[in-house]
Amino acid sequence: MNGSSDPPQSGKYLWHRDLLALIVVVASLLGVALLSALGIHKGGDAKDILTMVLPVIGTWVGTVLAFYFGKEQLEAANRTVESLARQLTSEEKLRSIKVTEKMIPRAEAFVVTAEPSDLKLLEALDNLDKQKKGNRLPIFTATGQPRYVIHRSTIDRFIAKKAAAGMSAEQLKALTMTDLLQDDEFGKNLQKTFAIVSKAGTLADAKKAMESLGWCQDVFVTEAGTSDESVLGWVTNGIIEQNSRV
Question: How far apart are CA 54 and CA 58, in angstroms?
Answer without folding.
Answer: 6
